Amino acid sequence: MRIVWVTNLPIGSLAEKLGVTASSGSWIYAALKEITIPSNEVFVITTCKIKDKIAIKENNVTFIGLPTGDPSAFSVCKRTEGIWRNELADLKPDVLQVWGTEYRHAIVALKTCPNLCKKYIYVQGIMDSIYKNYYGGISRISLLKCTSIIELLTNKTLFCARKKALENAKIEKESISLSDGVILETEWSSNYCNIINPSKKIYKHKLPLNQAFCLANWSVGTVERHSIFTSASDYPLKGLQYLIEALYYIKRRYPDVILYVPGAIIKREFTIKEYIRQRAYRKYLRSIIERYDLWDNVRFVGILSSQEMANYMSKANVFVCSSVIENHSSTLREAMLVGTPCISGAVGGIPEYLINNQNGLLVDPEDDIALAG
Questions:
Q1: Do 216 and 319 contact (CB within 8 A), yes or no?
Q2: Whose CA is closest to 301, among 247, 352, 357, 259?
Q3: Which pLDDT tens digit goes with each residue over 62-82?
Q4: How far apart are CA 184 and CA 122, in angstroms?
Q5: 318-321 β-sheet, strand order
Q6: Other CB atoms closer than 10 Å to residue 21's CB: what's the count?
Q7: Which among 47, 69, 327 is positioned nearest to 186, based on CA atoms?
Q8: Which of 53, 244, 273, 373 is the most buried (most CB within 10 A)?
Q9: What torsion, rounded to 10 degrees, do the Cα atoms 182, 185, 191, 196 define?
Q10: Using one digit for the tens of pLDDT, what is the confidence trace for 134-185?
Q11: 3-state secondary structure of 2
């Protein structure tokens, strides 16, 4: 069987060649491993800001970058449609699967795919819910106060990003309508898709988790006392602001508490240039850290590999998912697999696999006192 995956960013050998490092998405490699068998020929395609097509074959998988621009700035036109149409006509896939629904190159892939091919999309996040919860409960005024002139001049404010999320929600609806079926993890997301398109066939499938999390084991005897690990959080929807506020109350009981945050690094000290260019949400987080004197209690550890994530999880006292909305959280599932005690907001599809007082604790993510307790 010839299978084509359409992704939102380069992965595998293509990512290595282009020097792209992802801060999340380790599950996609585990999923790729599941279908990479001798009877399947697999192609993983994405759109890239490159001059010429790149194709790299590794084992039975071919990673392809098409010269049709950055995903976030993809333009639907005769040129880009022609490149995708010719590529898919040459590949003659039996199955085409789109990962994610927020970028326009997915629509072009679904439209230009040969008619005999079955087309499916894996809905990871519900874009409409992301749009509605984008500010994570933070007021527009508070975010505006933190917004830099650079962000305003370059149209890279959180307000622009939320508007983009609304556009992505429209793209998601069109992608669903063009597919033969939708693959989902949760009943919550299934209900959402039924509202968007009641006639669409829905399939349930849980993403496999990276082997690194299967091999790591949490043990009370080896944990770093009073340590907390969370998921990568660089925009308000992920709720890091509530977790840092909760840290203020936790510190009263445990002065040595440490919160480890993967992803973007917020430095305690910076240059004037860095101050001018800092993003609004990071500035907002910085204001909370400074208000409660938490610089010694919060450590931003940068982008981590799956193995590094698993190591942090195995040593943490607790893992906390403070998102204000989630279809499913692969990072939470990874922590549960490691065996780390988990706390999460009772939002979206999370209560379908993290059951309160059975395999974790559920709280209101926007209640910092409840989160601390």
A1: no
A2: 259
A3: 999 999 999 888 999 999 999
A4: 6
A5: 298-302, 258-262, 227-230, 318-321, 342-345, 361-363
A6: 10
A7: 327
A8: 244
A9: -30
A10: 999 999 999 999 999 999 999 999 999 999 999 999 999 999 999 999 999 9
A11: strand
DSSP conformation class of 206:
P
Nearest Cα neighbor of 139 from 244, 284, 278, 240 is 284
DSSP string, 276-310: HH--HHHHHHHHHHHHTT-TTTEEEEE---HHHHH
Tokens of 74: 């993809």
DSSP 82-149: HHHHHHHHHH--SEEEEE-SSSHHHHHHHHHS-TTSEEEEE--S-HHHHHHTTTTT--HHHHHHH--H
The two tokens of residue 84 are: 């995708």
Query: Which among 24, 105, 17 is positioned nearest to 58, based on CA atoms?
Result: 17
Amino acid at 369: I
Phi, psi dihedrals of residue 204, rounded to the nearest 5°: -100, 130
Cα separation, 194 vs 138, whole angstroms: 30
Phi and psi at residue 242, to the nearest 5°: -75, -35
Tokens (6 digits) for 26: 């380790």
